[in-house]
Every structure is written in structure tokens, then in C-alpha cells.
Specification:
With about 450 residues, the chain is mostly helical. It contains 21 helices and two strands.
Length: about 450
């Protein structure tokens, strides 16, 4: 295979350090200095591996200044030692060395937190293993999978990741040599097999550990399962990504129907409480009479920036209440006798996604449906429910008052939702404590 390449920023492009300054005015000089230091220190190795030297110089020059990362001289000495180690080896000895590197890189992939995402997709492994081979024992399987899944894009992603971690912290001499060796194999020799085999072994070992840990969780206390599964997903992000993708693809059709309004989705007011309070605060800040907005959704783009109203803080506070209520509604819809079989399957798939802790795809589902529900509420402008006397109570959502929220809290309490009632009362207290004419 032809050698892999790495990304080199143009002088006028944004610097890779994240400063938002142009590369030429930021880290370019540092990269040039570190590259020259590597060349001088590495000696003959720098002449043998010119592409590697440039990649290492970039990593050293844009390294984090917050930590004691290896500089050009350290990297150059390690590169020189690496060349000396392999220079006198015959073919058999070199192959033994590659096997050692493969095992060491497998261990590094599993040990280093920033390398946990460098794995092959579980679903693709399962497809390739469908012929019945035992992946843990069949060497041909490893080679077939590596050739199939180690694409040029994947290889260059590994290069960029190794450059990042080289400049992001302290490393042992062995780890520095290992990173240099892996970069050398990809950038100078185009050797995808050694690196790819390590990725595959790390993937399979992680899968086995994941299954073992999941079995332990299933056999453990019920009240600890959600937290334990979420931690497990965080530990094995490539598995979480694969599960999220598969579940989302199955749930996507019904999600689109919900988002587009083809399937009615009516959630109670307390599930979007933070956004309503944020909206009321925003209306007062921009001094637009609520009556001008009440039934004029076409004006939202003119008067209301939804990103300021429904911001990250608002979303995080409403998330547990919204998703819990959504799960309850979907579960009740499954019980409906007249639900179409295809729709029932879609609802079951969506419910299966949102009740599974630790899936990043839940954030996407939440944002899509949250904005749908929020938009419906503010378009209607009012919310109706029966008070304790059985009379219809109408809340103006664009002019919330503590009295309105306290009345709604009593309604929730009567309906048996004490947790939501307490939350609404907190919001009412915040409104009451605010200065006249303003929201807390």
C-alpha cells in the first residue's frame, strides 16, 4: 500500500492549536523550530524518514503548553534510537520486532483514554465474521478484516490522533518510541497491516470485556444498572457509537413522523418549563409586547433567537423530565390496540433507544422533539388545565406569573406527579422573588 499522508495547514489557515489565529501568526515558527531540532538530533534517521520528521515536528510545535510534552530534541533522540534498533536487523528479526510493536500498540490503544475511539465498527466485524470463522483464533480472519476495514481515511485519522496525543502530555520513552514507530510504518512504509492488526485485536478484546462487564451488570442490583451501563458506554465509546447508530436507524422513521407532526406528540408543560421561563425573560429584555408574538410564529425569526432562549443550560435542566415523560407516552402508545404494526415497531424501537442509558444519540432525539414541543406551545400561546375547583385555568405562556405556576403545581400534585409539582413550585418561587417587572 502507498504511504499515508498527514494534514499540513496552509500558512493562512486557522492554527491547529485552536487559537483562531492564522497558522503563520501562531504556531508556524514553533513548528519550524521543533522540526529543525528533530532533524539535528535524529541525524541519519531524519534523512531516512523525511515525512515522519515533518509530522513529528508538527506534533511537537503545536503541542499543549499546559503540560510537559516531549520537545523536538527528545523526539529526535528517540527517532535516532529507533533507526539504530532496526538498521542491523535481518528480515526475520525485523518481523519479530513488528510483532512486538503490534502487541505493544494493542496495549496502548486499550490503555490510553484518547485512543479508545480508534476501533473498527462492531457491525462490520460481525458481517465479516458471518462466514463462521472464530475471530479469536483464526489469523486469516485478522488479515482479511484489516485489509477490508483499514481504509486510507482511517489510517490518516490514526496519524492525526497519534500526533495529537504526542503533543498533549508526558509519555514514557517506550510510548514515545511506539508512537514514532507506528507513524513511521504508516507515513514511510504504508504498512497498514501491523497497525491494523493492533486495532483489530484491541477491538476484539474490548468487545469481550464489554460483554463480561455487561453480564456482571445484568446480574447486579437493579437500582445500579442505569449508572453502570452509562459508565460502560463511556468506557467503550466505539461500542456506544455502533449501538447508537443501529438503534437510531431503526427509530428514525417514527422520529421523523413525530418531529413533522404526523404523529401527535403532546407533552405536559413542566417538560419544557426552563425554555418557557427563558422565553419570558428574553421577551422582557427585547421589550417586545407579548401580544405581538402570541399568535405570530412567523415573527419568531425577527424577534426571538431560539438559540438564546433554548440554550445548553435550558436543555440540560429540562432533559430528565422531558425524556421520562416521552418514554411514558411512547410506552402507553404501544398498548393501543389500533396502532398499525409498522408504526408499533417504530415506536418500540424509539422507546428502546431513549430508555437505554449512555447513548449519545438520545441527545439528538431530545433536541429534535424538544424544539417541536416547545414550538407548539409558544405557537398556541396558552396552556389549559382544570384547577382544584374543576374550573378551566388558562395560562398565558408569554406572560407567566407565580400564581399561574402555583396553580399548575397543585394540578400536578393532584394528578400524582409530586416531583414535577415541586419543580414547578421552585420556578414560581423564583418568579415571586424577582424584582418587579423582571424574571429571576
Amino acid at each position: 500500500m502507498a504511504r499515508f499522508s498527514f494534514y499540513k495547514p496552509d500558512r493562512n489557515e486557522p492554527c491547529l492549536c485552536g487559537s483562531n489565529r492564522k497558522y503563520k501568526k501562531c504556531c508556524l515558527r514553533s513548528v519550524q523550530e521543533e522540526t529543525e531540532a528533530i532533524r539535528k538530533t535524529a541525524g541519519e534517521a531524519a534523512k531516512r524518514f523525511p515525512h515522519l520528521v515533518e509530522a513529528l515536528g508538527l506534533a511537537a510545535g503545536i503541542r499543549s503548553r499546559e503540560v510537559d510534552s516531549p520537545g523536538g530534541e527528545t523526539i529526535g533522540r528517540t527517532l535516532a534510537a529507533f533507526l539504530n534498533k532496526i538498521a542491523e536487523q535481518d528480515e526475520e528479526a525485523f518481523q519479530t520486532y513488528l510483532d512486538t510493536l503490534e502487541g505493544q500498540f494493542t496495549e496502548l490503544l486499550r490503555r490510553h483514554g484518547h485512543l479508545r475511539h480508534l476501533r473498527f465498527p462492531v457491525s462490520e466485524l460481525q458481517k465479516l465474521a458471518s462466514a463462521g470463522k472464530e475471530a479469536s483464533e483464526d489469523e486469516d480472519f485478522y488479515q482479511d478484516v484489516t485489509r477490508e476495514l483499514f481504509t486510507r481515511e482511517f489510517g490518516e485519522h490514526i496519524i492525526a490522533t497519534l500526533q495529537d496525543i504526542l503533543g498533549a502530555g508526558e509519555h514514557t520513552e517506550q510510548d514515545i518510541e511506539l508512537i514514532i514507530a507506528m507513524l513511521c510504518l504508516l507515513l514511510e512504509a504504508g504498512d497498514a497491516e501491523t497497525v491494523g492488526m493492533a486495532v483489530l485485536r484491541a477491538t476484539l478484546q474490548d468487545m469481550n470485556e464489554y460483554r463480561e462487564k455487561l453480564a456482571e451488570i445484568e446480574a447486579g442490583p437493579e437500582e445500579e444498572k442505569a449508572r453502570a451501563v452509562a459508565e460502560l458506554m463511556e468506557r467503550f465509546p466505539f461500542i456506544e457509537k455502533d449501538i447508537s447508530k443501529n438503534l437510531y436507524e431503526k427509530a428514525r422513521p417514527v422520529l421523523l413522523k413525530l418531529a413533522e407532526g404526523e404523529i401527535p406528540l403532546t407533552l405536559p408543560l413542566h417538560t419544557i418549563l426552563e425554555s418557557l421561563i427563558s422565553l419570558n425573560r428574553f421577551i422582557k429584555e427585547i421589550k417586545v409586547p407579548p401580544a405581538h408574538l402570541k399568535y405570530a410564529p412567523e415573527n419568531y425569526g425577527t424577534h426571538i433567537d431560539l438559540l438564546k432562549v433554548v440554550n445548553e443550560d435550558v436543555l440540560s435542566k429540562d432533559y430528565p423530565f422531558f425524556m421520562e415523560e416521552l418514554a411514558r407516552i411512547l410506552a402507553s402508545k404501544i398498548e393501543e390496540d389500533n396502532l398499525e404494526p409498522s408504526l408499533r415497531e417504530g415506536v418500540e424501537n424509539l422507546l428502546g433507544v431513549i430508555i437505554c442509558p449512555g447513548l449519545t444519540v438520545n441527545e439528538l432525539i431530545y433536541r429534535v422533539l424538544y424544539l417541536r414541543v416547545f414550538t407548539r406551545f409558544i405557537t398556541e400561546g396558552t396552556f389549559r388545565f382544570q384547577d382544584l375547583e374543576g374550573k378551566e385555568k388558562v395560562i398565558n405562556l408569554l406572560e407567566l406569573t407565580p400564581e399561574d405556576l402555583n396553580a399548575y403545581a397543585m394540578y400536578l400534585e393532584r394528578e400524582g406527579n409530586g416531583e414535577a409539582a415541586a419543580r414547578v413550585r421552585e420556578a414560581a418561587a423564583a418568579l415571586a422573588a424577582a424584582e418587579p417587572g423582571a424574571l429571576a
